[in-house]
Amino acid sequence: MQTITCVEDLREIYKRRVPKMFIDYAESGSYSEQTLRWNREDLQKIKLKQKILTDVSKRDTKTTIAGKPVNVPLVLAPIGLCGMQHANGEILAAKAAAEAGIPFTLSTMSVCSIEDVASETNKPFWFQLYVMKDRTFIRNLIARAAAAKCSALVLTVDLQLLAQRHRDIKNGLTVPPKMKLANILDIMTKPRWAMGILGTKRRSFGNLVGHVKGLTNTGSLGAWTAEQFDPALNWEDVKWIRKLWKGKLIIKGIMEVSDAQLALKHGADGIVVSNHGGRQLDGAPSSISALPKIVDAVGAKTEILFDGGVRTGQDLMRGLALGAKGAMIGRAFVYGLGANGQQGVKTAIECIRKELDMSMALCGVNKISEIDERVLAD
């Protein structure tokens, strides 16, 4: 059995156990994948400052996010098709997050439905919303999230249109997937994954099938989703959603100061500085490079999270030092999920927590609230 020391170890196992089409779906960016690369590269350029002979015997990685206590300043990000990375993936990830004491965010485009996750977990989770043209469906979806006692609504605003991801097209990753010979042969080498998927009834977009008028199977689902992303989405829609949703509203996909200010004006309780993991506008700056100016502009007025490229506790510390309240992780927990299910997700979270704890010690801080630009080297 391979010894797991970091998220990269989980990634190596993940790549052996999950079919290539779903690995590429998780790992790819749009077009030439420049922004995807910059998310990692720009984080790694930020240097930490060693601090010696400081009492760091009372370290604590606990803090609060969205008004709730967390054991580490992390949130599991919304991942579409997460249930194809591992059977019942969203349920397993939600359970792992609850055990680790951090929030889990369920995607609109999840395989397990809101009701599936709510029935299998005992702690509130967040729900991520894509706004479709079918506003009646969206109204009902928000109501379903409220009925499931979701503790926050994460409104993603950077996917009015779906950017092209070359790898998905080449792999035939459509809804339903095109079973090319190469895909079939690859799946035959992943028996553990295949048996898990065959053993669950959850193999489609659970939040959609059975809840959209005229949509009864995956064959009609592809056409519906292709035409439902709404290029007309605007701030008036945010105002409408704010009226419908009475809980915490977090707007995800903010990269500019002016948009951050508008988000607050329209009732957001928090924002996520995010370029969608490099999966939308290729050539956009990295999330970490956009973070400081947004913190300077609105950080005193709202809670700011960031995502994009976070794989280690040092990455998390860098974001905290630049003013973020915490980070969302997507690919990092997907690697754990595909490698070893619920336990793999817990391992990914714990790797990052331990790395953060050690970094705090070596930088001379005991509390999350003490992490600021003073831990960064020139």
Shape: globular
The CATH class assignment is: Alpha Beta
Distance between the termini: 41 Å
Estimated radius of gyration: 20 Å
Give the name of the CATH architecture. Alpha-Beta Barrel
Strand order of the largest sheet: 3-10-9-8-7-6-5-4
Whole-number mean pLDDT: 94
Indicate how many domains the architecture comprises: 1
Oligomer: single chain
Helix proportion? 40-55%
- CATH domain topology: TIM Barrel
Number of strands: 10
* SS element count, helices: 15
Protein described:
- The mean pLDDT is 94.
- 45% of the residues lie in helices and 10% in strands.
- It has helices at residues 7-17, 20-27, 34-45, 89-100, 114-120, 135-147, 166-171, 181-188, 191-198, 218-228, 235-244, 257-265, 287-298, 313-321, 331-363, and strands at residues 63-65, 68-70, 74-76, 105-106, 126-129, 152-156, 248-254, 270-273, 303-306, 326-329.
- Helix 14 (313-321) links the parallel strand 9 and strand 10 (326-329).
- It is globular and about 65 Å long.
- It starts with 6 loop residues before the first helix and ends in a 15-residue tail after the last helix.
- The strands form two sheets. Strands 3-10-9-8-7-6-5-4 form an eight-stranded parallel β-sheet.
- It has one domain: Aldolase class I (TIM Barrel).
- It has 378 residues and is of the alpha/beta class.
